Protein: NOL11 protein
Amino acid sequence: ISDQKPLGCWSVKHGQILTCPVVCNFETHEYIAVHDDKVLRIWKNEDMNLDKAFKATLSADVYRIHSLPQGGALVLFRGGAVRTLDVLLEAPQQEIENLISAEAIRWSGAFMEGQQPVLIFTTEKDRNFFVYVQKPKLSSLHKYKLEQQGSAKPLCFTAHITNQTVTLLCLYSNNSVYQVLIPLQQDTEEEEEKEEEILSKSLLLNLSVSGAVLKGISLVVLDKDHIAVLGSLPEPGKKPKECLTIWNTKFQTLQTSKELPLGTSGQLWCYEEKFFLIHGKVLTVIMYKCETSSLAAAVGKLKDSQTLDVSSFVNWNTLEDEELVVSFQSQESVALKAESRMSLRSNRSTVAGQSGPLSVGQLLLRLKDASNYVVETELKKLMAKAPTPDLQATIGCVVTALTDRCKRNPKFYPQNLLQEIVETRDLSYSLCPDLMAVALEQKDLHLLQMCLERFPDIPEEITYACLKAFLSVSEDHLKSVDVNLDSAICYVDVELNDMEVKTEILENGFGEEMDQDMCDTKIPQERQSVGESCPVGLQKAALLNAVLHSAYTETFLLPHLKNLPAQQAVLFLRYLYYLYVKCSEKVNTTLPGIRSPTINQIMDWMCLLLDAQFTVMVMLPEAKDLLSNLHKFVRAQVRFYSELNKIEGSLRELQRLNHLRESQTYSIEVLEII
Structure:
């Protein structure tokens, strides 16, 4: 997310509008969207075109789709009716009842109570607010009226279910949070005939920060004792400051807050112990962990010696590169742990006398000046720990601390340790963003290869820098470098027999005669050797294969490739052409080996390189033969597959006859293919 790398993109036609948020169906791993209020679209990640995705036109307008991990997808219509997605797809045009005429839905949420999904939504009519609780699978519906609060009105809602009771939290315009308890009722005839019940509410929290009143915009529940509120604090004569605040509702205290100077969209999401919010133009993700609440933790008076090295409240970092970074560690309090970087300030006076395992803050302090042996020992202890939800983030912070030290002191570079961490841990670029930059400075080609093969979110600028470094390094130097050769050792040949190449290429439809027939020119003898031997050594081939495996977005990579030096571009194209020929030698177009490039990766990079460097290639004399041979080879391939398409029907008929024929006796048959 920090690198803004789109992994998938789908769009509706011009004039169509997505009218509710897209969700993912946990059971089928499909996306569900609604455009123009009534048109349902369902597709999978590998589907490229939304127009070809499943389409169903419904009989009523959809307000929201909710997806539950074990309860499937629920569709809430603007009229208040709810259907499970499975029931709706059986008859998309089924009649949908209107339960809330003249009322407008303001909020909805879906939850699981045991094995039953429960959908809750609030409506507004004439400044009166109503709460509906539905169990779609049981056809159960209960309506309640929310008690009025003078002139104040609800701005947003959130809820959770515990022990058969719905806890509805309401953020009101008077800058207070109220709590409403709704028991989940069993359906009886008396209940159905009963008039709507008026729900009383109790004051949960006044949003006051240092005497100023927080004007809340959005809130989410973290656990039974903590909530997060996104809002703004007014300043005399200045623009209000937006901030994210964490509150302890049990003891009515502000746990922590952080200003968001770049502004937000006013929306705050919480999912699987992560915050999601828009800060400036960046979607920011913050990991958090809630632990048991206590009065000492709520007021910052913890006396436990194990936590003296860490501030008892959240220690927020500055907003670097428009990315919100939070770290917090405290026993029996809210703990926010950032995915990308964590900076914990330790109490230096307690570090020396501390016994037992080091905390994260103490470990980071120790890594600043410790010897290589101490660093290696402490990190091995850390990696030997049992997996915990925040262990990956902790290791990412440790790697960041090591790379920071490498930048301060170029002589310090724990190469083996960094390689071991990358090899054994599922890290990502965003967890340790400076690691590859330091590896480039140190010319650690093996570590760069490992990162390219394992990190899913490498920025295109870094991918290009690795490509340029691999192409520029000399073959003699690479012979002394430890590189993983598994992706290239099975097919890279330094010298090939001419007859072998010619025979294998003929298997897939390309030969000298066909090429001459198409181009009406005789191929010079010296050009026949193009593609017969790899233009780079085995080590460099393995490094380039790692680049081919790296994920990228064409729009972001193309400007960098235009800056690739001409000689390096020609060398890279020669290697891609070599791989293309190698793939075409076999019917299944698959290279042997582990993590070998696929035909699609080779073609995509070849097209990308030609788009970026075409003018340069055309002007370079040494690229003329390469482009000519590439053109001939591709044209021969097109012709070969075109000929195959012509006899496809006959081959299918032959296959059908072979299935019908009994092969008990020997026979010779002549089949005429027309």
About this structure: The chain is about 30% helix and 25% strand. The radius of gyration is 32 Å. Residues 309 and 346 are 4 Å apart (CA to CA). The first strand starts at residue 18 and ends at 25.
